[in-house]
Amino acid sequence: ALLRLFASEGLGADVSTRGELEFALRAAVPGERLVFHGNNKSDDELRSAAGAGALVVLDSLEEIARAKNAGVKRVLIRVTPGIEAETHRAIQTAHAESKFGLVADDALAAVREALTAGLEVAGLHVHIGSQLKRSAESLLAVDRLVDVALHCKQELDWTPQIFDLGGGLAVRHSLAETVPEPEAFTRELIERLREKWTEPARLILEPGRSLVGQAGLTLYRVGVVKRTTGVAYAAIDGGMSDNPRP
Question: What is the DSSP letter of 115?
């Protein structure tokens, strides 16, 4: 139901499994608004993405031939810009040792090889992490993504038609936290991209948790209150199963 609501509002879907793809298709998200991610896509998943008409984000050089053989038509190349976002280490996705994407030289090679393989290389993708509370690192990612685009234009005579700037915009986990407003955060990215890249291009953003983070509340009932060793414990009718990543 939530996906149907988003689809009716014109949003696309960022999927990374066959199950997620099936959810999006049943919610009537059109194929041209589907982006298929993942650093370990199976051949079956690539075929499913191709059948749905999704835009496939290539995450390695090895994936190019498999994507071609699976019938994939349009692709993005994921760039690893070597940026450590200010967030939990487990949800940083663009530092130098990240398992996701390709460093600049490999990204250029991926564009070359994908074009040679006959794929339509539509553009470049970057995503630096989740729960981002400031724009500084995201703006740096725009700079480095444009640097890759300029090198591709110079060396391969190829220019991206799409820039996917990822997402990861934070939501408040406590009343004390301060997070950027989506409009202001997005405006900064768009202005930086327009400043650095003057040619026409389509922009894709992945808002992630910021779409649903304020959609509801979880209410708990306090049961037993226990005081021991100087600490007061209030037991509630909920737990870690409700908050796997607090």
Answer: H
